[in-house]
Structures are given as C-alpha cells and as structure tokens.
# Entry
Amino acid sequence: MFYCRICGLDVASQLALPGVVEVHAPHDEPDVVVRYGDIPSSLDRPSYVGPTWQVSGQRFLFEVPGVARFLVNDGRAITIELNEASTKEDAAPFLLGTGIGAILHQRGELLLHGSAVALNNRAVILSGPTGAGKSTVAAALCKAGFQFLSDDVSVIRFDSDDHPVVTSDGRQHKLWSDSIQHLSLADRQRNVVREKIHKFYVDPPRSNAAALLPVVAVFLLDKVTPPDPPSIIQLSPVNAAPLLRENVFKSSLAQHMGRNGALFGQIASLLRHSAVFRLERARGFDRINETLETIKAAVEELS
Amino acid sequence: MPPGGGAVWLASFPKSGNTWLRLLLANLLSNQDKPVSINSIPLKGRSLVRRTYIEDVTLIDTDLLTLDEALLLRPRMAAAIIAEASEDENLLFVKTHDAYCRLPECEPLLGRHDRGAAKALYIVRDPRDVVVSLASHMSYTVDEAVRRLCMDDHFIPDVHAVTTHLPQHLQNWSRHVNGWNDQADVPVHVIRYEDLRAEPVSIFGAAVAFLGLDVQREKVEQAVRFSDFVELQTQETRNNFRERPPGATAPFFRKGRVSGWVEVLTEEQSAQIVAAHGNAMRRFRYL
# Structure
C-alpha cells in the first residue's frame, strides 16, 4: 500500500500516487482507501446522469473515456477500473483531482478550486477556473517568500471558534513547462504529470507552515488580454458569495449531490472572517511581479 | 428537427465565414431593429471545446487529457448538448472547426443520434482565399498558411499552448470539406461562401429553410443588411472585436472579398494549393 496525506485525510492506495509525498502507514484506519476493482456500468436509481458521470446518494460513478472509470463511495473508498490501454500513471492524476474532490464533497467539506499559500502564518487562496493562473501565481508567490499549502484545490474547514482554516497538503505543485521556465524552477522540476502532457510536478519550497492556518483572503483570478497593470477590487460579502459558489471545486457535482444549501452556509461562515478580492491580471509573465506586489499589499493591509 | 429545438453544428475550416454566418443567424433571430453587437452575439449556443464548460459538464480536468482523449469527449459533449436542445424550444447553435472523423470503434465524432436531433450547416470557401485570410488572422506568412492548409495534423490552437479552448483537429483542407460532406450521420446543408456573398438573401434563406425555421423574406433581408461587412467593420473599428487574436496583422472583418487571392498569392503558392486540393476544389466548383 502507498500511504499519503491529502487535504488532511490519511489515504491508503493500492496504486502509487505520483506527485504526492509518501508517508509511513498511519496507526489508525486510513480515512480513504483506493483499490482496483470491477465497477458497475451504472448506479442504481441515479439522481443525476451526466455525459461522463452519475450520482446516487453517496455514490459517484465517473469515467474518463479512454483512461479509466472510478467509483467513489461514501467519502471513504475509491475503486478504479483501468481502460485496457491505460496505465495506473494515466489514471492517477484524475483520481487525485476529481476522485479526491468527490470524496471531499461526500464528506461535506467546503473545497474551492484554488491554490493556497501563506504569509506570516496567514493563508490566502488563489481561486479561478482552469487556465486562470492559480498554480503559476502561487508558485511565483512562493518564490517571493510565501509558504506553499496546496495546489489547485483548497479545503476550508472551521475551527472550534468557527474561524476558517486551511491545511497544508501532501501534493506537489503542478506547473506547465513555460511557467517552470519563466519562474526559473527547473531545479525543482520532477516527473511529468502524464506522458505527452507538458505539465510537471514541482517540489514546493520547504514548507514549515503550521498544520492549520487561518484563511484571511480569497483572490478570484481573472485574465485580461491587454497588458494592463493588474487591477484589484474587494468584493462585498453579498457579491462575493455567488462567485465563491461558482469557484467550488467540481461545482456541478456539488449541485447534483444536493449540496447547495450546505455550501452557502459554509461560504457565509468563510465570509465572516475572510476578505474576497477580484484580481484581474494580464496574460503571460511580463507583469507577474506587479501581480505579486498587488497580492502582497492587499494581504499586508488586512493586518 | 424536433418541434422547436434541436442542435445545429455550424461547421467550417477556419476563416471560411463561420462568424459571418453566426451573425446572420443572430440578426435573423434577435428580433431587434438594429444590428446585434459583434462582441456579444446573441445566438443561443454551446461549445464542444471551451474548457471551463467541458469541465463543468464532464468533471474532467481537460489539461490532463492527451489529444486523442480530448477528442473522445466530443460525442459525449454532443450528446449532452443535444439532450439540452431537445428540452428547449429554441435551436442550440454550436460552432465547430473540427474535421469530421471516426473515433475508435467507428464512433462518429459527434456521436450517433436520432435522425433530426441535430443538423449541420457547412460553410466552404475557396482555399486560396482561406490562405490569405488565415495569414493575416494568425500573423503567418502566406507560405506558412499554405503549409497549414496541407498539414494532416493541423490543430488550432497550437497543441502546446495553454489555452481556454481544447485543440480542434482540422486535418487538411480537402479532408475537412470532404469529411463533413461525405458523412451520413448528420443532415448537412452546404453553403459556398462565394454564393453567400453574391446572393446573400436567397442563399441564407435556403439555409434558414433547411433548419426548419420560418423564412420571412423581409426578416432575411434585414439580417443580411445588419450583417453587411461595412456594418461589421464599423463596429470593429469603434469597439474592437474580442475574437480577433492579439497579434493579428489586420482587422478580423476584412473585405470579405471573393478571389482576393489573385492579388496576393504567387503563382507558385496558388499552384501548391491546387496540387494538394484540386479534387476537392473541383468538387466545390473552385476550378
């Protein structure tokens, strides 16, 4: 078995998970077990059937055509059936993305599509759709002194005082080769995420971040085409709430699991303690330093 | 077409008049007494390749897919769009530059569906004019544009770019036009760009009739007037056009000219296109 910690969960997996830091076997039962096995072609009484997935209560069936099918059960188990022509290396990135996302939704967590970094033990989340530059900006911030917490998905939990906190993750950064080149991270570049894809795992700088850090800000990233300087506005909670809902990781899955009400409650709790900014930045790397300065200034002003 | 709804694939090789066709349809269906904005074309549509939409519908992180795997999502997306269209009283329009091909196990690119669940309008343009337009749109040299029309593995956008849309596989120009017109999975109506320029009211009217829409001559005439190139150029000059690539060397809506290639291509370039695509050019009366 391959043991690791992902989003604060102990995971035991029959397949080694690339891009995840392996740990010793936990003393207790793992939170999540990943195994190979046969998967039914459909679920009993699904409440929703989409083009590649279906939901029935706490069961989620998901297919990546040509790669693998996954069955995620009750927030505790993932079963994988590989396509004949695929390898476990092909399936692992989808397991770590959508599979773990489904586990977390089944566990009732608030998870944002975003990378988390920290400055002075205060966490900020960089959120936005695919291609918005979350991982790239997070990696650039880590070069500029921030600590790395998580890549692509951030789980926000609430402490005993109902303050939002985020945990550091056991997964590496995933970056496109041009980001690695522009940010001069070649010395920390590791394996390719998948064959034929120019995206690589990158070791984060050594993190001494505490296990749980308070979330003080969420930046909703948006790209603009003209090379204007980055623009930032702080959103009122009323305006921020629906945008945060849109940026929930695998948002449509949450919707079809019937999680809308619960998520709005969690988002309201987050907004009581965290600022939300919309940050527009130019595409490419030419003005990335200005983006970093803008984020840094906004975080420092919150203190 | 089922009562009211249905999916319409608006298919073409790039720079063949697809955007103009969408503007004609939008101006026809908008019921406005002024031209629609080129920057927010009010045509109810979906995308087969926009990453954020695909990820929302399929839950798959598209940046992890190989090109072949990404193509496997097309029939799934097409099925989802057709299912949505069947519950809508309006047509759902879907622009595509994909070449029509067969996937593993002979699955058609856009899946198998009940006859009439989807239709296609295919717009074809003289490849010599396509080359001239492609060169200025993509900032290619003319030689590079000629080369791309002949490449079997021609993708847009480039495969290695980090993009908002999945790459579309164009194959080469001949295979593109023949593929869509030889397939028997989807009823297709072909529009020659040159005919649409010469006789827009009757040619566009025929396309509207093919879609099962009510053809009212005065409305078709108004749509043609509102989509006139002078109007489109005026809007682009005033407000820019968001689909124009940042590095383009010319406005998106150029002259829309027919046979403009005569003044641009060298004899050698023109001969190269004819040598590669002569049969398909003859099929569509370009030779």
Observations:
- Chain A is about 25% helix and 35% strand.
- The mean pLDDT of chain A is 89.
- Residues 262 and 279 of chain A are 27 Å apart (CA to CA).
